[in-house]
Records
---
Amino acid sequence: MAVRFFARYREATGRQRLEVDLPEGGTVEAAWAAVVDRHPALSQYRPFTLFAIGNDYVQPDHPLKAGDELCLFPPVSGGSL
Amino acid sequence: MPDLYRIVEEPLSADAVAEAVAAAAAGGIVIFSGVVRNEKDGRPVKYLEYEAHAPMAEAKMLEIGEQVRRRWPSVKAVTMLHRVGRLEIGESSVLIAVSAAHRQEAFEACHYAIDTLKRTVPVWKKEHFEDGEIWVGLQGG
């Protein structure tokens, strides 16, 4: 399955996407573990990370389907206040 | 005019969003403009960079607009625009316009919309200083 990185995470990994292999029914948390395996620099950010699939946030225990694209977000900081 | 929720790369115009929410039955229009300021905790800022997950950001702004309409039924129209890319000091990064029958609903709805946007819409801000840069929203790193 595909993982996409945004903002700080894109810069920290030096990439926008990563393909990871997960067993059927693997969770978001398992995908995170696979990503951190490849990019250990991200591990410190786990408590702050937001996960999304499509246009919706998902929880760490959310099961992933083949073809899902998991987005990893740092905390959002839009606006200008 | 239908409600409008967009991530854009061009400069934002307060006049244009006021026009977009104009309605014959609206007695008040409130516009919030978030502006790039020239300092952060006393440190001079050179410019800002914004990045978004555009499709999801637009979907989340639409959700906010739907919440606004449920909560304040007298709201006539909503527009939410967030700019991405490099922004200079004094430029507007976000514009929210709400028209309503009466001013109180327009103020409340606009306030709710910007506060919710900052919590839920996937947009990230990077501050560029003379001597470095930092992504906002996470201490350290």
---
Amino acid sequence: MSLQLEPTAEEIHAERLYADIGVKDHEYERIVQLMGRKPNYTEIGLFSVLWSEHCSYKHSKPLLKQFPSTAPHVLQGPGEGAGVVDIGDGQAVVFKVESHNHPSAVEPYQGAATGVGGILRDVFSMGARPIALLNSLRFGPLTTPRMRYLFEEVVAGISGYGNCVGVPTVGGEIQFDDTYDGNPLVNAMCIGLIDQNDLQKGIAAGVGNTVMYVGAATGRDGIHGATFASEELNEDSADKRPSVQVGDPFTEKRVLEACLEVAKSDALVGIQDMGAAGLTSSAAEMASKAGTGIAMNLDLVPQRETGMTPYEMMLSESQERMLLVVEKGKETEIEVICEKWDLETAAIGTVKEDMRLTLTFHGDVVADVPVTALTDEAPVYDVPSEEPADFREHQQRPVWQPQSSDYNETLLQLLSQPTIANKEWVYDQYDHMVQTNTVVMPGSDAAVLRIRGTEKALATSMDGNSRYIALDPKEGGKIAIAEAARNIICSGAQPLALTDCLNYGSPEEPSIYWQMEQSTAGMSEACRTFDTPVVSGNVSLYNETNGEAIYPTPVVGMVGLVEQLDHVTTQPFKQAGDVIYIIGEAEPAWGGSELQLVEDGKISGQVPTMDLELEQARQQQVLAAIRAGLVQSAHDIAEGGLAVALAECVMGTELGADVSMKDDVAELFAETQSRYVISVAVEDAEAFEQAIPAARCYGTVTDEKVLRMKTTEGQKLIEQPTDELHHVWKGAIPCFLKSKA
Amino acid sequence: MKAAVIVFPGSNCDTDMSYALSDFTDAETVDLVPYTAESVAEYDAIFLPGGFSYGDYLRSGAIARFAPVMQSVIAEAEQGKTVLGICNGFQILLEAGLLPGAMKRNKDLKYICRTVDVKVENADTRFSGEYEKGETLRIPIAHGEGNYECDGQTYETLKKNNRIVFTYEADVNGSTGQIAGITNEAGNVLGMMPHPERAMETLLGSEDGRRLFTSVYRHWRDTHVVTT
């Protein structure tokens, strides 16, 4: 079989062939300047992927710099496979979130599955055992067959991969909105646990050391995946299906076990996942971090197809592959471990002093590029930003007024919104118990995992309400962080740090860049207030279909520490007679609320404000009360307001609630921030009121299975049997999926 | 009691099973035994854990039955040694012919992970001696292919000989007779889809699985330890 004919360096220049693989004219000129000559086909391929937004963050770097990323408890911030945070006793948590939006839009099962596979490798390449997966998903309304197909297949892909590897999927969140109709979002997060002594890094140190390839053979799948991820979607995107990789969780499981053994070996110098941009990025980044070069002989790369060109091998994103740097002479140690797991290994190269990436193939040098040109010299763009006209317009609108008068009906309507409805249909398909550490299963504010052999536990949650951010990116950015922290607090943990996935439209559009600037500024401010640094993350831009961008959707994955297992708290009410307290006053700000969406079918106006100092103070008060043993249940008031929050506290229990309040629709449904529903045993009520003076008693938990909300004058506002609420809430998503229309 | 937990490539409940045995029974040894082992004759009880052996890309368990260790597992089972397969372990025992019937995909064609009510149908086995007949246990299931299928005659035989040890209280996956666990004719081999090793601590939701492992241990002690 003969090699396909590749264009020459001259042809690439003359015919602007670089543009087809996402390289801009001025970027091409810069590449020629850096290399001192015109790049050949393989070389321009290397640049095209490493200089893509996905790998280089060329449009987002200045924004990422504003995030706080250090703290005494942060052992590793952004820059490695995943962030690392100290949790005491010589242990650390390792975590990161990654997007797989574009692949999932065209091939939902494999797109979502390989998203899970990639984030697992980011974590175990650090030497940490993955102990939990989460995901944050965004879809259009489930009213079209196509969207139901995408939703079902994404969930099946996550389930198929995560379950097989044996890492529990313990939590996540899903929102449905028109804005994601053409461009669903699939963000996957992984948390690992490690003894700090075992931490590994992705560096190619030690001139003369051996570069080893471990795992699945390289095929032609996923070529230009990173470039594809950095483009807008359009009607031709289905043709990009070959850019989507195919996952093999069985191999992943073996690679995982082998890597964790390898990590304990003295022979290992550095290790990195061949993720986005495959062999290219892992080799270039490891060399760049060590200030070395790498020479590789591509004839030695394990291949599962015949006739692959250097270009294809370097750009393939075949899954379940790792690149290792191994001390010269100790290769056998690694080979023995991999053989035990029935994995292919190959010594494919050597660490060099020359700081160049040199590739040979069939005896010829096919690429010879300075490593820094590929990585450090990648362009960084200072992009113009411009406040969009509709922002002012929303700010200046008169306050929106709900029309709702039948509150019973409104509550049932809210509970059946897919964003609020019970997600059991989803998480039942995820093995959330394997490894037997899951203390709080999916469905509460945060998932909780005990740390075996200690009295501690980890709490984790993912959040990011893009509706607020769409109307007011700065305030919405603050809310995203605050809500994640609040969910961690409600579970009895202190928030430690977070990872973020920044999903936006095209940064080349000034109004979208403005959204990015404003929302990340709001997020940074909140991170500083809560002392929760951003230790890792991912940027996914160009989430647009036919020129229409998604709402700005930064997603936050937070991790917190439960000091004592008996601090673990969940949202359902626990026993009749307990006193129900509400912390925080409702205010009539409806912009981006679930009620506004239900009534108007769109969002408008001003979002709830976020007072970070107040938020922080309340969080710490609530956590202190939980630690003092005063709290039976805790739940934050979020989408759908107090009525929905109270319903969530009774549904699935044998209990009800009797509460009274002002006759005000905001009291029932407003999404005012920094608010909680907390139930307290009668004997602890006095101590609780002293601990949190702002807490107001609203009523009691009852053993009659009815949720009753009335005015202080005794007039009925809402009265619904717990079972009826539960029925509506639980049935909503399965009902959508059964509809054939 | 010396216990072996077999680790197939793709097993992922092996450590959970090992914790269940070492933390909650008095077993003197609990070893993770690789699929390549030639013999498990030195062990008193053999446990096949859950997971996705060989990825389960074919029928679940269809490849694992050919793993080198299985010859010895089958030989030990035929000699009356205790063999317990949970979830993927059950599927492997079916494929290996140690138990009758087969697994189909769940009736809803979806993976299910959920804690369900499991009824003890027979408390007179070495696996269920510490339960009460008729008792309802809270035990998690986590499987995509747990829809147990057998022909009418097999089902009648299983029923008549009290070989149905556990049933689901509700029809969760379409299994014939809502079967959750069965033994072989001799009663020394049990296969079950629910995961008792995930129900060992109230902290994690239920400790109803404990007595399955203590039953196995007690049976071994009663038959092997001479009390003076």
